[in-house]
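I'm curious: can you give me some protein's one-letter sequence along with its backbone structure tokens because I've never seen that pairing?
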Amino acid sequence: MGDERPGHPAALRLGRRYLQEQQYTFTLIVNWLPDSNENTLRDPWPSLRQDLGKQTTGARNPFGLPSRLWHFLLSEAGIPDTTRWAEIPAKEQNRLIRLLTAMEFPVAGKTTFKEEFVTCGGIRLSEIDPLTMQSRIAPGLYFAGEVMDVDGITGGFNFQHAWTSGWIAAQLEGARP
């Protein structure tokens, strides 16, 4: 995948570069029941229909999902909240099972801000002492934040990295005679 330098969180490095290669156009697949897949959820479904048969789908969520998410999934599957479990048509049942285990979200480009990721690239981490943020090539020169080759989704990892690396460089520099 190109940049395989140590010190980068692999998932962020590969994810960011992959998204860029895909021009931020892809399909995100979410499994709302991570311990299940379509086949393992389909097996107990007849028992579910029998056990909950007289209850409405809107009133009985057997998967412990947040209520708003459950109602959204029912709506997406074409199942009214008033439908009894025993009366769910096969087509809608199959759609609900697919939505629960492999709901697809098409992603087409970045948001209007166009800045979800940091720039990717910069000073190689192998050229920086992580305990001091000092250059291993030019002593007395310190780095922090996005000038370093660290990338990932902004708002979390990168902000924390920028703040922490800046704090480390400032603390250590301030303690020098």
